[in-house]
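Supplementary Methods. Inverse-folding protocol.

Structures were first reduced to a discrete structure-token string of length 130. This string, shown here, constituted the complete conditioning input.
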């Protein structure tokens, strides 16, 4: 099953890079708003490959020159969201393992904090008479 998923993710990566490159080269008339869901799809695919421990399914090296093309493009250089999403894609593959470890430790800390701050018996207040 995993070889099929890896092949699919590799093909998806190639197609997304091709679409974004053609949008930067004005071969496809896509706006920044239309590219955002494609970048979100790429991030989702990267996360899924990390969850399934599929190694080298996502070619991050193809996204690095793509960011420079986005910056050079007249249509997309003002879209900060696309540039940041492209940065997230290039950094996601290397930081995925570290983020998992950090989230585990944070969860452990959260459970310790909730145990310590459990509400104890509250003091009863006396009614004040006017």
């Amino acid at each position: 099953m995993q070889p099929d998923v890896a092949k699919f993710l590799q093909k998806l990566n190639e197609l997304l890079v091709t679409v974004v490159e053609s949008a930067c080269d004005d071969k496809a008339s896509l706006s920044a708003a239309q590219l955002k869901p494609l970048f979100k799809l790429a991030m989702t695919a990267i996360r899924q490959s990390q969850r399934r421990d599929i190694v080298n399914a996502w070619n991050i090296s193809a996204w690095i020159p793509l960011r420079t093309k986005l910056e050079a493009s007249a249509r997309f250089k003002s879209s900060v969201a696309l540039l940041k999403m492209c940065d997230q894609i290039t950094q996601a593959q290397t930081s995925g393992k570290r983020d998992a470890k950090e989230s585990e430790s944070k969860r452990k800390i959260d459970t310790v904090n909730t145990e310590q701050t459990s509400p104890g018996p509250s003091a009863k207040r006396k009614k004040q008479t006017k």
